[in-house]
Amino acid sequence: MKRALLFAALFMIANIVLAQVATQPSVREILSLDGTLRLERNGSYSLNGYELRIDASSTPRAVQKGNAQMHNMTKSTWNSVGTGVGGIDFPSVLALAVYNGELYVGGSFTEAGGISANNIARWNGTSWNSVGIQKSNGVNGSVNALMVYNGELYVGGSFTEAGGISANNIARWNGTNWNSAGSGVNNEVFALAVYNNQLYVGGIFTSAGGISANNIARWNGTNWNSAGTGSSNGVNGAVNALAVYNSELYVGGDFRKAGGNSANRIARWDGTSWNSVGTGADNGVSGGSDPFVRVLAVHNGELYVGGSFTAAGSMNASNIARWDGTSWNSVGTGSDNGVDNIVSAFAGYNGGFYIGGFFTQAGSVNASRIARWNGLSCSSIGSSTKHKGFACIGYSNKL
């Protein structure tokens, strides 16, 4: 009898184990593309066929045995892009865009990978190429912005020629030839964005295609138009950034009025009229010796605003703030909100929201010019105080 009960118990345990094995998810289901573990998945998993490695950033990654490509991906190292760009004393890259399967790079330089490339070049994943042929490649001044529109790559900056043809601060490249965008604009372009099937161009100028356009204009592929009518069109200062959020075009820069109405360094355009971001005297951003907005991006359903300021609406906000469509909020709480100097770049990567600029402190921790914000608690990363980064554990939403 005891033996029968023992066999019955063993049989029951075996069935439970088999059932668990049958329903146990594959280890692939808990791995991200880079081999990191998706911690929201509970349960036990067999790592048969995989090795667990700790990379240079102390992150555990599961690497498929014999998969050299995955092994290389987990090294978390920087790699050069050929020999990069140069040719002048202080070369810079100011804009990036993907067009026709290649990475286009704009800025201020005269060569890329050792070949002639006048302020714009393209990288095919292996080698550099100019944009245009011989001496007429590229543009004859700096490139500040790139945007794909109507199947062409639009290039904005401070130049008068593109591919040897006349092009006033904005030009278009169709993959083979350069073309102007009408007669262009009469001064420098800083930002480009597509909204309502038109290309919006921001910068510091007073006319576009020969018509009055105060620092922002729109191009429909054939003709130029202002953003607003009469003397109240556009904004009364430089436009540095453009972003589409909640079906409106948000415009950031160094201005106090948009369409003749109060708008402190940021405004929104609905295709017909201008509106402030916030109400009354507390609209927009303010504070500091010379407040301005440098960059805009949408993340986790909110518009993030970066630049140089100490307040957003009536909230304390140190150089970065977020707008939810109705009200302003700081990034961080109390004295730990924001960063201690100018914010100039945003990007989403691997579930985090990255912030670049001129700062050395983010919240209450050291952060050398770049930080990562995920929405909740924060901690520093890296072993060197001089080169330490910044990380926060929280949301997993991408930009």
Task: Please give a structural write-up.
The protein has 399 residues and is mainly β. 7% of the residues lie in helices and 43% in strands. It is built from 2 helices and 41 strands. The strands form 14 sheets. Strands 4-5-8-9 form a 4-stranded antiparallel beta sheet, with no helix packed on it. A 4-stranded antiparallel beta sheet has the order 10-11-14-15, with no helix packed on it. Strand 29 (292-299) and strand 30 (302-308) form a beta hairpin. The longest helix has 22 residues, at 2-23. It is globular and about 60 Å long. The N and C termini lie far apart (66 Å). Residues 2-23, 67-74 and 377-399 have low confidence and may be disordered.
Short description:
With 399 residues, the chain is mainly β. Helices cover 7% and strands 43% of the residues. It is globular, with a radius of gyration of 26 Å.
Secondary structure tally, helices: 2
Average of the residue pLDDT scores? 83
Q: Sheet bearing the most strands, described?
A: 4 strands, antiparallel
| Outline type | globular
Q: State the distance separating the first and last CA atoms.
A: 66 Å
Helical amount? under 10%
Strand order of the largest sheet: 4-5-8-9
Classification by helices and strands: mainly beta
DSSP, total strands:
41
| Beta-strand residue fraction | 35-45%
Rg calculated over all Cα atoms:
26 Å
Low-pLDDT segments = 2-23, 67-74, 377-399
